[in-house]
């Protein structure tokens, strides 16, 4: 499947255990190598990695998370958030005027 054929996008939060001598880098490098992963960031806060993923369907992304990401040694938990609608991306607005009737 080509990258532009992937229509479902998700953001996955990963809580991971830092590895001796490599910190978060070893796991982040492994996560980043998957074709489904568009971007991977080390974050501050409640989780460690923020991963942007693309797939052909909700089930495709869910299967990737459950069979690949969550089974990596050192991954403690995942939280998946599906992107439902884009309003702005890469500095560009991505929505049309609101066509609903006004509330009076």
Written description of the protein model:
By secondary structure, this protein is α+β, with helices and mostly antiparallel strands. It is built from 2 helices and 6 strands, in the order E-H-E-E-H-E-E-E. A hairpin with a 6-residue loop joins strand 2 (37-42) and strand 3 (49-55). The longest helix is centred in the middle third of the chain and has 10 residues, at 58-67.
Radius of gyration: 17 Å
CATH class value: Alpha Beta
Estimated structural class: alpha+beta
* SS elements, strand count: 6
Shape: elongated
Q: What is the rounded distance between the termini? A: 48 Å
Summed over residues and divided by their number, the pLDDT gives a mean of 89
Percent of residues in beta strands: 25-35%
CATH topology assignment? Alpha-Beta Plaits
Strand order, largest beta sheet: 2-3-1-4
The percent range for helix content is 10-25%
Largest sheet: 4 strands, antiparallel
Q: What is the CATH superfamily?
A: Lrp/AsnC effector binding domain/regulation of amino acid metabolism (RAM) domain
Number of helices: 2
Taking pLDDT < 50 over at least 5 consecutive residues as the criterion, the unreliable ranges are: none
CATH architecture: 2-Layer Sandwich
**SSE arrangement, N to C:** EHEEHEEE
| Overall number of domains | 1
